[in-house]
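Hi R.,

Here's the chain you asked about this morning:
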Amino acid sequence: MFYLPKRKFVKPWEFGHTKKTRVKGIIILLQKNWSNPALVDCTLNPLINCIAPFENQKEVAEIQSEKKKKRKEMNLNKDSVESLVAQIQGLSGNLSDINHLHNLLKQSEELLHSESTRLVSSLAELDPSIHSLGYLYFLKAILSAPVSKEEANGLLVSIARFINLCVVEQIRLAPEKFIFICRWFKDQVILLEAPIRGVAPILTAVRKLQVSSEQLTTLHPDFLLLCVLAKCYKTGISILEDDIFEVDQPRDFFLYCYYGGMICIGQKQFGKALELLHNVVTAPMSTLSAIAVESYKKYILVSLVHLGQFSASFPKYTSSVAQRNLKTFSQPYLELANSYGTGKISELETFVQTNMEKFESDNNLGLVKQVVSSMYKRNIQRLTQTYLTLSLQDIANTVQLSSSKEAEMHVLQMIEDGEIYATINQKDGMVRFLEDPEQYKTCAMIKHIDSSMKRIMSLSKKLTSMDELMSCDPMYLAKVGRERQRYDYDDFDSVSQRFNI
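And the predicted structure, written out as tokens:
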């Protein structure tokens, strides 16, 4: 301690918290009170010598304390991850324990993200068929951090195995994490240009995430996209056979119908493709989306291939946004439909050649070529309505084919596809057109009709049930109440009735 004028006792640390501020404060105080410089120097030097060791010791102690604290935190984190693994192993037995584990994992998310680099080795201690929830949280933490290419290849195998073995009840407790992992998996297989690797796992993920076959999950579009890229059209068709009644996000529905339409086009199921694309075009929308525009372009082309015609008018239930804007973005396709309607193959081919780059940039050139090919078929079908027999050469001349051999190939293909019924006499090159041989009395046809009737009845019941639910929905009733008049004419009896009381 030091005795200074006007103050009894002054401790060095009362001048500040650091060495500089303390010394500076003492100097200022000395200069204010003592006018003798020599006295200041003789007082200051011992003071510095006194403060310096004190400061050095304190700083060293603080550094050592900080190091100990960090070391303790590292050990705590290490123990916490290992403890968490043990808790996952012990609490994955029954439902009550799973719920407790879920809360525990939620609280440990920050720890998992901070220790994401160490979690890969911890996955080996967990069984995805038993510890699905813990495995899911670990994977999510690992994938949230940057992953190298080598690590990604190893994780693809682990994720595929996890999707196949995971317990449905556990992953449904954290569906957003499961979706994140599946989408990361999908993006990686596309990045590796191996989409076929993701088809089977994502299909399994869709089935596990679905509460019922009527629900459209957010993974449906991802699965169909992989099927399109891998050209696994038959696998994609299997999921399109389900009737969808529950949709969470409109975008998922749009993509589901768009990719589904592409798969049906690949399988030559143009009727189903037309239905799916029609759903996108006529669906309610507040703003025009690129998905709707691309669907409308394909809708025009599929209509020409499947029906031989296209109507530019929209159904009444189509949104006003779609009716106003879709035609503007699809002008070349509407002109193609007009050219197709003339029935002149030369004009159609000229138009296609003129707009080749546009169709190719839209990835619709293959479908456009099918439109051109379908015109030959339509012209041949028109001949069946006029002639009973006709030579192959006459067919070639009428339909504008280059030779009778080419006409024969078209006729044979149409007979095989069931588009016409005819026989070809190879001797004289004559084609005889026949009536539809189906008598609708075979066992197979009766079975088909019966199954169709049952499906229609089931859909009718479902529609009635949905109508009843909607009619009782408070939000729907409030909206309808605002938009309609207080009383409608139909609310009153047209004929007065008398009641005897």
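The mean pLDDT is 83.

Let me know if you need anything else.
M.
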